[in-house]
Amino acid sequence: VVGVILSLAMFIGALRILNGTLYSMVHTLWWVATLVLTLGFFVHRLAVERYPASAHLIKEARTVAEPASYAGIGVMLYTHLHDTQPLGMFFHQGLGCMLVTLAATQVLTTYVHSVRAVHSSAALLTR
């Protein structure tokens, strides 16, 4: 239910983008990347519950789409300047670095879990 509500909110945001009410391309790309993340959560949950045979395809797509979305949002936050006050800069750049690090960590843990057994020490360490 929460996934559906968030997906609808992101869709409404995307419609606002098409109407030109958001003021920059960075905000537009941020909404699109957030929509990709939210829809990925929702679609994967739906596939696990109703279409278990195809759930692995959604999971594989999410292993690429999620880190790409997090990294994209992180880079946009880091480079997006509209508040040049020290706190605003710290927030944008700090959060941007954290999201890029999250994306790199997701890629690393996905790789480790794909080449190591579930109970291996490397797989346990990356959880």
Question: Would you mind describing this structure in some detail?
Answer:
With 127 residues, this protein is mainly α. It has five helices and no strands. The longest helix has 30 residues, at 86-115. The two termini are 27 Å apart.
Please provide a brief summary of the model.
The chain is mostly helical and 127 residues long. Helices cover 81% and strands 0% of the residues.
Question: Structural class given helices, strands, pairing?
Answer: mainly alpha
Secondary-structure element order, as H and E? Answer: HHHHH
Helix content: over 70%
Largest sheet properties: none
Rg, Å, rounded? 17 Å
Which spans have pLDDT < 50 for at least 5 consecutive residues? Answer: none
Number of strand segments: 0
DSSP summary: helix tally: 5
Shape: flat
Percent of residues in β-strands: under 5%
How are the secondary structure elements laid out?
Layout: H1 2-18, H2 25-50, H3 55-79, H4 86-115, H5 121-125
Helix pairs in contact: 1-2, 2-3, 3-4
What are the defining features of this structure?
127 residues, mainly alpha, 81% helix, flat
